[in-house]
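Aim 2 progress update. The chain analyzed this quarter is reproduced below.
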Amino acid sequence: MTLSMRNRFFKSGIFAAALMLIAVLAVILFILPLFSGLTVEASRRTSGILQGAASHFFSPSLNAPFASTTAAVVYALVCLILIHHFFEKTNAPEILFVAIFILSLAFEGIRFMVPLKMVYGLPGLYLAMSFRILIFARYAGIFSLFIASICAAGLEVQEHRYVFLIIAASSLVIALGIPIDTLAWDSSLGVITGYGMMFKIVETGIALITVLSFLIAAYTRGSKEYILIGTGAALAFLGRNILLATDTWLTPLPGLLFLVLGTWFICTQLHRVYLWL
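Predicted structure tokens:
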């Protein structure tokens, strides 16, 4: 993929994230005041790395998932703008897949389909279709960061379209195959899906392999920057988990901080690796 094509992708991602942010702000302005009972009606509380401990001490708050979802969209928009600015003329193969991981966070705004359905009585089909798109985006993001790590470890990507096809096909199989209950949701505005524990194990395994691949790249390429990139990937996965699975005010800020810090490590060190090439 040429630099011009990659930069057009960055611009398209910025445009998509900006549209999602506008939609999210519209929902907050018009729906949030009408839907104060959403968390009370949730089928169960969400679960996450910090959420499990926080749920024992704090009651669920409707505003917390609204804030964390908005933060995820804002994060995606700002990061994509910065990536386009700093990598516009830098040929770093991994950054394209890192950008896809970041862009996937913009689709978290789809979770606002839950209050929209309840306020306007939308058919369950709309909710199911929307959340399948969200699941597709989530796994496309996870797989993309994994691909970035194996590119760093030595994978030569000559035809990006085949890699994109593999990512899309894998994500699509999961998104279409996972059962979705459109009549139930948790306290983070996410619908209840099947095989939750199995997919958590899969995500954890992919995260560990991703971090390990970056550490292998540090050894094989003799570049200590990849140690920090691997650390950043670990922080990004950790922050993503915390930010997306929250219903209290205790967890969104740490999740966002971990996510931002991890992204900063990844992008600054990649820029340093390829700056003089």
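The chain has a mean pLDDT of 90. Residues 124-152 form the longest helix (29 residues). These observations will guide the mutagenesis experiments scheduled for the next reporting period.
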